[in-house]
Amino acid sequence: xxxxxxxxxxxxxxxxxxxxxxxxxxxxxxxxxxxxxxxxxxxxxxxxxxxxxxxxxxxxxxxxxxxxxxxxxxxxxxxxxxxxxxxxxxxxxxxxxxxxxxxxxxxxxxxxxxxxxxxxxxxxxxxxxxxxxxxxxxxxxxxxxxxxxxxxxxxxxxxxxxxxxxxxxxxxxxxxxxxxxxxxxxxxxxxxxxxxxxxxxxxxxxxxxxxxxxxxxxxxxxxxxxxxxxxxxxxxxxxxxxxxxxxxxxxxxxxxxxxxxxxxxxxxxxxxxxxxxxxxxxxxxxxxxxxxxxxxxxxxxxxxxxxxxxxxxxxxxxxxxxxxxxxxxxxxxxxxxxxxxxxxxxxxxxxxxxxxxxxxxxxxxxxxxxxxxxxxxxxxxxxx
Length: 384
Prior knowledge:
Blueprint: H1 3-13, H2 20-32, E1 50-56, H3 65-79, E2 84-89, H4 100-106, E3 111-114, H5 138-147, H6 150-159, E4 163-170, E5 177-179, E6 193-195, H7 198-206, E7 210-212, H8 219-225, E8 230-231, H9 236-242, E9 250-253, E10 262-268, H10 269-274, H11 277-313, E11 317-319, H12 322-340, H13 344-378
Parallel strand pairs: 1-2, 1-3, 6-7, 6-8, 9-11
Antiparallel strand pairs: 3-10, 4-10, 5-8, 5-9
Helix pairs in contact: 2-11, 3-11, 5-6, 6-13, 7-12, 9-11, 12-13
């Protein structure tokens, strides 16, 4: 069996369950793909390769977000032996950041890499497939999609728009955001203009603020000009590079709005159906591998970036006031139910999500939650 046959067999044979990407990474090894920066080895397309255009919602070179899109393209090329060639375009190169869904749905682009809660105007249930306030962590989302029926419902929802959806990365827990002024109580949110998408934006509105949707590449200028008073984006790794600390020095946690945000690849269904079965499975494998890598990547890089922000810029991660957290929790549950009441399919998605959430939450909190609290209480960072 030659190498091309081997990697194709691996891609097809390891696709059931959340460990598919991990298995592919182990078999392919560092030589075939994942280096220290999570980048795939250089591979050239061959003559007659299938060529696809991927439009993204991210600025060019964006760590984590844009890196995930590039990684998927590189791994698809490597796993296919150069026969599946995906060209990645940053936000604005072909279409705007928030135009990628329509571009793929209409067939003017082949794939998008984005966050599906941007499409809540298409269907109120879309945020469940990215993040909802007080919702699932990254690992819980994997549990729901792969073992709780979430993936089948996501595919049913996206099929109505001619799209095949795939989980492609997860930012894990996000920060609460950057603010120009201190937030000491719920009253400090009144009238505050904040960049925040999804139903997290609706949560801010119900807390008394004004939510503004804008792509990541426009946030800094909006803070600088006073168009907004606060902004959330992802976490320290992405935020430090965009320099938000220079305009809004108060950094808050927890990220109530996005405890774990799925990044999605959406493929035009007509284009996907025309791919060979091998190429279809390679694309799925590349997305799964990217998801698996991203969980560790964001956890590690956010830790490194947070310490750098403390040391270089004096940024301290503050805790949101209790009255903000408690009121947000009440609002979140109302919004979940409202999203589920939008139409019958949204209702089935919500009920599936809620069932999985209730099944996993006790173990997450009683195992990992208690452990982390005890580790913080008893073990100093200076311990060996």
